[in-house]
Design brief:
Blueprint: H1 3-33, E1 45-49, H2 55-64, H3 71-80, E2 89-93, H4 99-108, E3 117-121, H5 127-138, H6 142-149, H7 152-159, E4 185-189, H8 196-212, H9 215-221, H10 225-237, H11 243-258, H12 266-272, H13 282-285, H14 309-316, E5 325-328, E6 334-337, H15 340-349, H16 354-358
Antiparallel strand pairs: 1-2, 3-4, 5-6
Helix pairs in contact: 1-3, 2-3, 5-6, 10-11, 10-14, 11-14
Length: about 350
């Protein structure tokens, strides 16, 4: 081999080495550039991604929030990262995260990084109590929320969207159209500025799921959805702590309805006055409201609270019993009776004391 050939081979090797060094150096620089801004800083940084934002636009937005270490490297990553399903939402990141971690979270809408506000609609909540829960999340007052929920035009717009909402909720004697229709649960709100309307539809969506899976059984039981939720709400408020009690209480109410008796439930009287109490006043018990099941025979105009799954299933699996009465003692035990005489004995044997009422 000629001297000239040896020099060419040596030069080629050097050239390859230079390329490898440059490539390796560039790759290390790139990895460094898309790495965390500060691996020790885990403080939350909120980033709201708008609809239609592309990868490069998001990188610029992350840079504004101080989450990008090197913009040149970040723009390269935006082009080659395969981020083709970027999801608008509000995310919570921090400076210890790498750019790919943040971009992948946005690309998948990773729930772990979404900004979440929680609120709870508890079992047995009246609609006014539901409004209080939403007020804390939306910044809208309880009265404004109730005004919206009672607005007939708004309710009609919801009737058009949900199969289980019917004109029954707009009956003249119904106190609040959406009472009993918001499913009780703990909800995660990921919107940065949630509205009463969006949260309302979130709760109605859950009710849709619960009622749809029970629709055939509701039809077979001979109830309309409105009647079903009405009875379920009363079962719930009467204190169904177990599946058995829920079914037994529902069986008592079913018997009373079939015999055209009043339901005789004090919790329906409490609803009239928007309160929960055991020691109802005589004047309250004498209320002429159609919700007063101590005076009015048959079904009351509508639900009196949220309806949990246990109460729903209690109604659908109502116990076959001869009992026509029940009484909840101060310790939570429920005593059943076939006659008013037996019922009176249960009340006498397990009285509520002043101390019980104060607890």
């Amino acid at each position: 081999m000629s001297k000239h050939g040896k020099i060419s081979l040596k030069g080629l090797v050097i050239l390859v080495l230079i390329v490898v060094v440059v490539f390796t150096g560039g790759f290390i620089y790139y990895l460094h550039g898309i790495g965390p801004v500060d691996s020790t800083d885990s403080s939350d940084v909120m980033v709201t991604i708008e609809n239609g934002s592309g990868a490069t636009a998001i990188v610029y937005q992350l840079n504004v929030q101080g989450l990008i270490k090197d913009m040149n490297c970040a723009k390269i990553n935006a082009r080659i990262g395969g981020y083709n399903s970027l999801q608008a939402n509000t995310y919570i990141f921090n400076k210890s995260m790498t750019l790919p971690e943040m971009m992948n979270a946005i690309n998948t809408g990773d729930f772990n990084y979404l900004s979440k506000t929680t609120f709870e609609l508890k079992e047995g909540y009246r609609l006014t109590q539901c409004a209080e829960s939403l007020a804390a999340v939306t910044g809208t007052s309880k009265d404004e929320i109730m005004a919206l929920w009672d607005d007939k035009d708004y309710v009609k717009s919801l009737i058009d969207k949900y199969w289980f909402l019917t004109d029954e909720v707009l009956g003249d004697d119904v106190m609040h159209p959406l009472e009993g229709y918001l499913f009780p649960d703990t909800y995660f709100v990921t919107e940065s500025d949630p509205t009463v309307e969006s949260i309302t539809e979130m709760a109605l969506g859950e009710m849709d799921t619960e009622l749809t899976r029970r629709k055939a059984d509701i039809d077979a039981a001979g109830y309309t959805v409105h009647e079903f939720l009405t009875l379920g709400s009363i079962v719930c408020k009467e204190g169904c702590a177990t599946d058995e009690d829920a079914a037994h209480i529902a069986g008592v109410f079913k018997n009373r309805l079939e015999q055209d008796m009043s339901l005789g439930s004090d919790v329906t009287v409490c609803y009239i006055f928007d309160e929960d109490r055991v020691d109802l006043k005589v004047s309250q018990l004498e209320s002429d409201s159609k919700y007063n099941s101590r005076k009015v025979a048959g079904m009351i105009p509508g639900p009196i609270s949220t309806v949990p799954a246990m109460a729903m299933d209690g109604v659908l699996n109502a116990m076959d019993t001869d009992d026509l009465f029940f009484y909840a003692g101060p310790d939570g035990t429920i005593y059943y009776a076939k006659t008013s005489e037996e019922h009176d004995k249960n009340v006498e044997a397990h009285p509520w004391t002043e101390e019980d009422l104060e607890q």
